[in-house]
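Justification of resources, computational component.

The compute hours requested in this renewal are based largely on the per-chain cost of generating structure records like the one below. Each record pairs the submitted sequence with a full structure-token output. That output is archived, and it is also reused by downstream analysis tasks.
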Amino acid sequence: SAGKVLMATVKGDFHDIGKNIVGVVLSCNGFEVTDMGVMVPCDKILAAAKEKGADIIGLSGLITPSLDEMMHVASEMEKAGMNTPLLIGGATTSAAHTAIKIAPHYPSGSVVHVLDASRSVPVTTSLLSEEANSFRADNEALHIKMREKFGGGTKKPVISLEDAQSKAFTCDWKDQEIAIPSWLGVRSFASNTADSTIQVEKRPSKDEDERFSASLEELIEYIDWSPFFHSWELRGVWDSEKKILKTRNTAGAEEAAKLYVEAQDMLKRIIAEDRFEAKGCYGFFPANAVGDDIEIFSDESRTEVIAKFCTLRQQIEKKSDKPNYALADFVAPKGSGRADYLGGFVVGIHGADEFAKELDEKENDPYLAIMVKAIADRFAEAFAELLHHRARTDWCYETEAQLTKDQLIHENYRGIRPAPGYPSQPDHTEKETLFKLLDAEKRTGVYLTESCAMHPGSAVSGIYFSHPESKYFMVSDIQQDQLEDYAKRKEMDLEVIAKWLGPWLG
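The structure output for this chain reads:
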């Protein structure tokens, strides 16, 4: 044995593809790997590490609340008097965050950020070799350098919330064209086990029956394959026509071509064996902006507010002609006298976890198990793309065949669908408002964890905006004045909301 490695996706988080790949790579290089799975509480991680005699502990997470959970685990390891090296990995993690936020909680042990699976073997080998002391010293020196840079580096100039609001994106709402949905409310989809068809409930007419159905095969047409290869650390852009990965890495391109063929074989098996169930819902509602909030009304009378989305505004100082955006800017203000609308959606692919477990345990094929989960992620994103396509046609500002599949995949269309918890709105708790508004858990089988991660892991949610100038942007360096204002608008304790927005605070 090259050493014993214990790995876990932290409490509140379900995503584990990257962790699983690391586990396979380490196993192939002689390490004894114990994978505790997903949603693992701190006490169970520490107990298992003691029981297994782990030489190294690895933590993984996808959503930003997982960063706080990793800090908690590091702190508890210090309290327990441990000195076992701690590896940090996952999509939202970084070397800087590891150095600044996590490592200080565990001074007795080495905390190392692992960028990807290819780095896992040299890192673990170094930590357990005769050169371990030298490696740890170099790692700590790097952390000190990063902390000093963070503490003493040049800060981006920021402005007050009041000034940022005065620089909000504006348009002439009196003459602004506002798209009107052809229907209001929520519609649900569920795959038909007999013919793998996704169908909408309560179809208004026979004519719309075809337009509101889609086979799993049609979802395949909406798949953007580039992120699939990124899951396997094959960087580049997939050319859907030539079926090649555009990259300078010749060997990587060759592997991508093989991987694509194997993925197509797995797709056929998934459909033939009816392994996946796609469930989703989307809807439209009367809406108007009130300051940085968006009020959702029960009907066109706009007298009863049934939900409120709270948005966050950029506070980075910009040139005079550049707006400080908030998502509320893209919805007509209540005082404008204009009726506007907002949409929302949730989709999930069920069955991937069960199929992957069967492949891993019964067929002893972790490679295909990982592939199944990676394909499920692509199906979920494709489902989201298909629904957004239909939403835009239902919103009556795009026709069914106006754009090619390639244009759709590359989002060359009007409107956006930002997800709560991501750059335009980094607060994951806004998912709770969205799920309640759509009654999403009942309609789709997708539910939220205590950290607002979605289960199953192959799920996507978001809010639809139709404004012609709506765009994605990043909110960062949130200042104290906005934090206090946001907590008041959300009717949440200041410390609680600060924890949810931790990585985004200035």
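Residues 366-394 form the longest helix (29 residues). Confidence is low (pLDDT under 50) at residues 193-213.
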